[in-house]
Amino acid sequence: MEPEGPKFRRVLLKLSGEVLAGEGGFGIDPSSLMRLSKEIKEVWEQGVQIAVVIGGGNIFRGLSGVDSGIDRATGDYMGMLATLINALALQSSLERLGVPTRVMTPFEIRQLAEPYIRRRAIRHLEKGRVVIFAGGTGNPFFTTDTAAALRAAEIEADVILKGTKVDGVYDKDPVKNEDARKFNKISYIEVLDRGLKVMDSTAISLCMDNGIPILVFSVLKPGNIKRVVMGEEVGTLVGRVRDAG
């Protein structure tokens, strides 16, 4: 039976840039963008406060730039700009559906986005606006996973919803290993000890230090974002030992 109301009051949805690329694997696929926007709107209509951190891997990934002779810091800054492109696309798509939004960045780019100010971001959420955090943390050498953990702590989100291409956390790569075992619940420490690729270690440590649970689920399955928010058992919960035991 579906719960009467949402399980969470304020969530941070972490999306990889690749989920916007669709089957093409690069750029922004309009149908994928619209599907995600409609799913976010469904959650917003439940009265849930939603912040989004989106990656830029569908356009440019900092680490890949190193292979082409671009230094790591410059490559990471380029990746931050890629996240802004995705954020603006998501903003436009959501507003076409009647969802009020704000894009915020840790660096100044006034013509396109507001500067990130924690109190202002919280106020936007309280007023029912979807806040899209672009530009990562604003610093090179930090991933958008770490940005998601940082922003979730700052806005006091109840949970990080980590939307991925797989339906949870496995003990090994389920694509390459048929015998891979899925976890329903797992602790932060076990994720770090096993070296599981849930989020990078900095992000996991930040969540552990601040007690922010992470729900890892497949964002490719239609309706999953709402299912997770409504408290259905979807994906894998990463949390403290008592929660994940």
Tell me the β content: 15-25%
Give me the count of strands.
11
Strand order of the largest sheet: 4-3-5-2-1-6-10-11-9
CATH superfamily: Acetylglutamate kinase-like
- CATH top level is Alpha Beta
Corresponding CATH architecture? 3-Layer(aba) Sandwich
**Helical amount:** 25-40%
Number of domains: 1
Mean pLDDT, as a whole number? 93
The biggest sheet amounts to: 9 strands, mixed
> Based on helices, strands and strand pairing, what is the structural class?
alpha/beta
Number of helices: 9
Structure in words:
The chain has 245 residues and is α/β, with parallel strands linked by helices. It has a single domain, classed as Carbamate kinase (3-Layer(aba) Sandwich). Helices cover 38% and strands 18% of the residues. It has 9 helices and 11 strands. It has helices spanning 30-44, 62-67, 72-96, 118-126, 144-154, 188-194, 201-210, 224-229, 241-244; strands spanning 10-15, 49-54, 101-105, 114-115, 130-133, 159-164, 169-170, 182-183, 185-187, 214-218, 236-239. A 9-stranded mixed sheet has the order 4-3-5-2-1-6-10-11-9, with helices on both faces. Strands 7-8 form a two-stranded antiparallel sheet. Strand 1 (10-15), helix 1 (30-44) and strand 2 (49-54) form a beta-alpha-beta unit. Helix 1 (30-44) packs across helix 3. The two termini are 24 Å apart. The relative contact order is 0.16.
